[in-house]
Amino acid sequence: xxxxxxxxxxxxxxxxxxxxxxxxxxxxxxxxxxxxxxxxxxxxxxxxxxxxxxxxxxxxxxxxxxxxxxxxxxxxxxxxxxxxxxxxxxxxxxxxxxxxxxxxxxxxxxxxxxxxxxxxxxxxxxxxxxxx
Length: 132
Known about the structure:
Blueprint: E1 4-8, E2 13-18, H1 29-44, E3 50-55, E4 59-61, H2 66-71, H3 77-95, E5 101-105, E6 108-109, H4 112-119, E7 122-125, E8 130-131
Helix pairs in contact: 1-3, 3-4
């Protein structure tokens, strides 16, 4: 995975870390795909008991990557619809995961990053966390 790291400890706690700190962990098509796949695998795994989602660096997630969003301007309506469905599938997968989910907020969370947080069962935030 290029946009995400995954670590499961001996207790069955899976930590998924968004790994795009240079763009404040903004998500693009690759991150959406990787995160959806990781959550789907976690749901099916007997070794995973709980899932923690966090962000590398000083930001949890700035939401959608603006460069990625600009690239969609020239995409067809069907392509934009397909991208929207992939994002909806990610949020639905996280929201309906059969294991408890925790959003661990280490910094700022904006836009779609708030969607990731809202889809989790529990949110734990640092005092320095900012939401918008």
